[in-house]
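Course assignment 3, question 2. Fill in each field.
Student: A.L.
Task: Predict the tertiary structure for the chain below.
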Amino acid sequence: MVLKRREKILLVGVAIALIIFLFDRFFDTPMNRKISLLRGEVKAVDARLKELDLLVKGLQIAEEETLRLEKELKSLSAQTLRGEEFRAFLRHLARSSDPLQMKVISMVPTEEKIIPSEEKKGTPLRDSRKITVQLVLHSTFPKVESYLRGIEELPFLVQIEGIQIERAEEAQPLLKVTLNLKMYMISI
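Answer field:
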């Protein structure tokens, strides 16, 4: 049986279509699936790398902040009173009133123990206390001002919580000054 020219062309067309179909079915489609799977994996890895990059930047920022806070803690610790320094501070308060011709009527220190949250968890920390000193003196207004400036220039962390200035009958012509100072003390 001899095939006619038209049948030969049709047979070649069918063979080409069959080859294209088989190529697509067994080679191109599986490759496209592998490529799409690999693209998905690449996107996942890229997302993970971006996440890790953000974490690294966050760690660097946290490390810088930790160093800054440690420096701040050291400076505050240097300004915080210790046992002997507190006695020296009280002596300073009493002595600095002498050259200014001020009369210290009373000096009452009260202390409150501070329990940090870390100590509650079981890690022992140094003993720290908040000391409040109530100071009553008789003086003139300019002398009180220079006395407060002297306290402000101390190398300790001292906070003036309150000041009350009134004219008292028993201290004429001087003023009665009630001064509340707050400071923190660490026992070594």
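Instructor remarks: The chain has a mean pLDDT of 80. The beta strands are 103-114, 127-139, 158-167, 175-187.
Grade: pending
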